[in-house]
Amino acid sequence: MPSRKALIVRTTLALSAVTAAGAAVALSTGAEAATPAAAPAPATASSHPTPGTTAGTTPTTTPATQAPAPGATPTDPAPATTRHGTGDRPSPAAKPRTAEPTRHAAAPKPPAPLPAKSLPDSEAARWKPMGPANTRPVGPETRLNECATVRGAASWQQQGYVSAFKTPAIEDSFTFATEAAATGAYQNLVTDLAGCQDTSREVQRKAGLTADARVERTAATADGDAYRRQWTGVAGMSAPGAQTNHVYLVRRGATVTVLEFTEMRTASGPHHSYDIRDDRATLAILAR
Questions:
Q1: Residue 60, C-beta contacts closer than 8 angstroms, at least 6 positions apart
Q2: β-strand partners of 128
């Protein structure tokens, strides 16, 4: 299992405070890479202050870092001269050999993020983008929430949104070198989320909370799955408190897109609940 330093922790959208007047929320992005890059990391969504929590993740002030690009392939040194038999004449040195550079298939360009009006519950939520989409540095693993991890992505594009309820949504698109690699990553996410109820309850038990998490798959297509998690969240990957997380996975060719949004169930929060009967339509929109 990779060390924590080798794990890239996904953007976190978390409730920063709840006051009598309502929830104050802020978006913060952070990532950890195995080795800091020499070049500065690209701009991230933390440049655009905004809201709350997705199916998991807490704010961090750690700047996003990018693993250094591999340098030129070194040239093998010529072997040292050797003596054969009793003669003193060295054998001729071998001609230096330069290894051929490794050629990687270019990852496909990620799809444009969803228009805010195409997000789930858009009529009530009145979603707005949190600024432009960001290109995020990838590593061997990208953690989405307490349950799910994307492995082996070649590129990562991220778009955040904020609702009229001051709750967040985030769309992450991961591209892969091949369609087979994307299919494998998608299937791993499905496996991760199939065990999300047990994982979430274990997180709650460790935090000393009642293990009340309930996770169900709410819709499915040929290459898409939707899930709902209802639970008392634990600060860390998620904001604390009673909430419902909606997670959508779709594979299109060599791209896997994950859309998440959260409903916070608080006394001062909106008396409105998203209807999961629309989840199949959301999967179809993501597979556009």
A1: 9, 12, 28, 29, 30
A2: 162
For residues 123 and 116, the answer to whether their CB atoms sit within 8 Å is no
Among residues 15, 48, 45, the alpha carbon closest in space to that of 30 is found at 45
For helices 196-206 and 179-194, the axis angle rounded to 10 degrees is: 50
Nearest-angstrom CA–CA distance, 162 and 169 = 6
Q: pTM of the entire structure?
A: 0.68
Q: How many residues does the chain have?
A: 288
- Predicted pLDDT of residue 273: 81
8 Å CB contact between 226 and 274 = no
pLDDT digits (tens, 9 = 90+) for 27-85: 333 333 333 333 333 333 333 333 334 444 433 333 333 333 334 344 444 444 333 34
Spatial CA neighbour of 213 closest among 222, 204, 221, 223: 204
17-21, 51-55, 68-72, 158-162: range with lowest mean pLDDT? 17-21
Query: Is the distance from CB of 217 to CB of 224 less than 8 angstroms?
Result: no
Residues 75, 240: Cα–Cα separation, whole Å: 54
Q: Is the dihedral of CA 143, 277, 256, 166 positive or negative?
A: negative
Q: Do 54 and 261 form a contact (C-beta atoms < 8 A)?
A: yes
Give the E-state strand segments of the chain in sequence order: 7-9, 12-19, 22-28, 128-129, 134-136, 141-143, 149-151, 155-162, 168-175, 214-221, 224-233, 241-252, 255-264
DSSP codes joined into one string, 113-180? PPPGGGSTTHHHH--EE-SS-EEE---SEEE-SSS-EEES-SEEEEEEEE-TTS-EEEEEEEE-SSHH
